Amino acid sequence: MHASEPRPQAFPPPAQAEEADVDRSDLAYRRWLSEAVGKVQADANRSADTHLLSVPLPADWGIDLYLKDESTHPTGSLKHRLARSLFLYALCNGWIRPGRPVIEASSGSTAVSEAYFARLIGVPFVAVMARGTVQAKVDLIEFHGGSCHLVDSPGEVYGAATRLAAETGGHYMDQFTYAERATDWRGNNNIAESIFRQLEAERHPVPTWIVATAGTGGTSATVARYVRYAQATTGICVADPENSAFFPGWRDHDPTATTDTGSRIEGIGRQRVEPSFVPGAIDRMMRVPDAASIAGVRVLERLLGRRAGASTGTGLWAAFRIIAEMRTRGEQGSVVGLLCDPGERYLEKYYADEWLAAQGIDIGPYVARVERFLVTGSLAPVSPPHID
Questions:
Q1: What integer pLDDT is reported at residue 346 of this predicted model?
Q2: How high is the pLDDT of residue 47?
Q3: Contact assessment for residue 271 and residue 259, using Cβ atoms and an 8 Å cutoff
Q4: Beta-sheet pairing, 235-241 with 209-213
Q5: In what order do the strands lie in the sheet with 235-241?
Q6: Which residue of 72, 169, 324, 337 pairs with 211 in a disulfide if CB–CB is 3.0 to 4.6 A?
Q7: What does the alpha-carbon distance between residue 270 and residue 262 come to, in Å, rounded to a whole number?
Q8: In a 3-state reduction of DSSP, which class is residue 74?
Q9: Helix, strand or coil for residue 308?
């Protein structure tokens, strides 16, 4: 070695690592967990499917419109499927523990269903919701054994739920993050597989379009993924209400899009693009005026003798637009939408003319458009009568 070169530094040999073993196994917890998962799975066996309702259209159009009636679930809404999936996901991840509360940020329907499953497995449940949520949903959450923590605006629910979970040692379910990954989108009787199975004997068994709405984005992600997995050519359309960030976020490829005002259509539309929203799986989006959504369910009541929540009307308006376009092009096929929840929850809102007036919502022009559509197939605005 040359005299000017630095002498290599000597390091002591590494110490021998000692054996280590941390055993956190808990047989009592695993027995509780097994029983809890079994109870949730048993609920799926009892309520395995929902009806696919046919909405009457003129037979010579050659187009069939169906609504997947999710209001017949035990907790009365589309969110029953989501809540079941979220509970199974959280249980199997070890996030829900005996005696510790489950906390959820919600606009109401998911919280109703999660309260049901929390009581089923014997854990406390707290729903964090905006004060404007209809009282009927608060009553249903409490009926199923949950409690409600109300905040002043929809944008506050996330932080409040996170704080409550930290303070209580509970689990924040966070449907807005986990909805798209909790559901088995390849099948296992998810909503998409059920739709395709129920259409097998119809004249157009593969739907041309399926129309969904977005609260978390989980349903549209599940349906879109299943359609691709099944190698079907069905288009996926998401209908979005006023004051929601989903539509501008999708249109502009901007996941940071936000809005200043919350959605008036409970259950769908958010002021931010939620993590569970999967834009790349969606073929088309429509922004639907709130007046059109409410007009849709008002007319639907006359068609089916059933009241539905306004989120159903949002998707129904988009379905009508798609069918009108198919008529113009001379196409035949089937379109499927969702009946998300019952209208009886919203008698003080969407079925109350006083509430509409206070909100400045005029559904008259949209009712006229729907009624003309059902006869002519055109959804274009109705021109006022000409007066000489």
A1: 95
A2: 79
A3: yes
A4: parallel
A5: 51-55, 63-69, 333-339, 209-213, 235-241, 284-288
A6: 337
A7: 7
A8: coil
A9: strand
b/e burial code for range 189-217 (CB count within 10 A of at least 16 → b): ebbbbbbbebbeeeeeeebbbbbbbbbbb
What local confidence, expressed as pLDDT, does residue 362 receive? 98
State the Cα–Cα distance between residues 175 and 274, nearest whole angstrom: 9
What is the C-alpha separation between 352 and 344, in angstroms, rounded? 11
Query: What is the SS3 assignment for 289?
Result: coil
Residues of the chain with pLDDT under 70: 1-8, 48, 383-388
Q: pLDDT of 191-233, one tens digit each?
A: 999 999 999 999 999 999 999 999 999 999 999 999 999 999 9
Which tokens is 2 given? 């040359």
Q: Which two tokens stand for residue 143?
A: 């009926």
Sequence-separated (6 or more) residues with CB below 8 Å from residue 65: 54, 55, 57, 319, 323, 334, 335, 336, 337
Q: What is the spatial distance between Cα 142 and Cα 126, in angstroms, rounded to a whole number?
A: 10
At 20 the pLDDT is 94
pLDDT of res. 385 = 53
Q: What's the 3-state SS for 18-64?
A: CCCCCCCCCHHHHHHHHHHHHHHHHHHHHCCCCEEEEECCCHHHCEE
User: Which pTM does this prediction carry?
Assistant: 0.90
**Residue at token pair 């005002």:** 261
End-to-end CA distance of the chain: 111
Q: How far apart are CA 269 and CA 261, in angstroms?
A: 10
Amino acid at position 99, single letter: G
Rg, the chain, Cα only:
25
> Is 379 within 8 Å of 324 (Cβ atoms)?
yes
Strands (E), the chain: 51-55, 63-69, 102-105, 125-130, 147-151, 171-172, 209-213, 235-241, 284-288, 333-339
Of residues 295, 314, 304, 282, the one with CA closest to residue 371: 295
Residue 230, both tokens? 């099944």
70 in Cβ contact with 340 (< 8 Å): yes
Q: How far are the Cα atoms of 48, 81, 135, 185, 339 from residue 189, in angstroms, in the given order?
A: 7, 10, 32, 9, 18
